[in-house]
Amino acid sequence: MQTSQWAFAVTEMVHLLALAALGGSVLFLDLRLLGITLRNESASVISRDLSRILLVSLAVMILSGIGLLSEEAMKCFYSPAFRWKMALLVTAVTFYFTIHRKTALRASTTTASLSQRAVAVISLLLWLGVGVAGRAIGLI
Amino acid sequence: MTQPLIQHVCQILYDSPIGTAIRESDNAFSVIESVHVLSITLLVGTIAILDLRMLGLILREIRVSRIARAVLPLTWAGFLFMLTSGFLLFWAEAAKNYLNPAFRVKMVLLLLVGLNPLIFHTTVYRRVTQWEIDHRSPWRARAAACASLLLWGGVIVAGRAIAYF
What we know:
The complex is a heterodimer. Chain A is an all-alpha fold. Helices cover 81% and strands 0% of the residues of chain A. Chain A has helices spanning 7-33, 43-77, 80-106, 114-137. Chain A starts with 6 loop residues before the first helix and ends with a helix. Chain B is mostly helical. Chain B has one domain (5-164). Chain B contains 7 helices and no strands. The two termini of chain B are 27 Å apart. The chains are: A mainly alpha, B mainly alpha. Chains A and B meet through α1, α2 and α4 of A and α3, α4 and α7 of B.
């Protein structure tokens, strides 16, 4: 990929398209947990359906991300932004599969409990952190 | 005046103090660019949820109109952020963008992607009460959903490509 003019660009575009899908589903799901959108609909149904988009786009992001990495792996290894991104990514994904998922399944349709809101805010911050650190790789 | 009018306006923007300030600042352009990318998520990510619902892929048990009401404020917020940050980026690079083929493609796609909801909301969405509980929306709504997903995808791709010309 270091030698191709367009491979990196195309991979970056795919990475960006998947970002839109991933970010949108995370945002919407967390807004539901915060009790802001679709309050009367079951959070577990929304979580189940949006998790499909989330998982597909996460897979695309990781694959295209590995493609991007293969071009500048040595540069990334020394980049503090890249190390932050990986740490945040692992945390965000672990958090999603454990606490976040459980919370969504138990969420009530009437009021959003404090712990439920906290989970949503932590999730949003973690994913936002992954994005910001990712953007910073190109800048630092 | 030898330049076409639009190019002339682009050059004026490019040479203006604000455009120059954004271009010459160390961080302004990348910070605005980051905001621009985050608003992509807000705009495209949320409208995609409505599109996928109409295609019958997700959230089938929930009425289309409820999802539209939940999603559209977020989409509009994303649109405003995107337009503002996008204009600031354009301000800094207007004269270069004018000649950039990817930028021109992006503008055409934006125009088309704007027409899509205009047609959708004045036609098939007017009768949404008749089909909002259907698991799969009528073909016109599905066509609008496909157009929206494809066009927004195209806008993102063309937008990314601007940097490569």
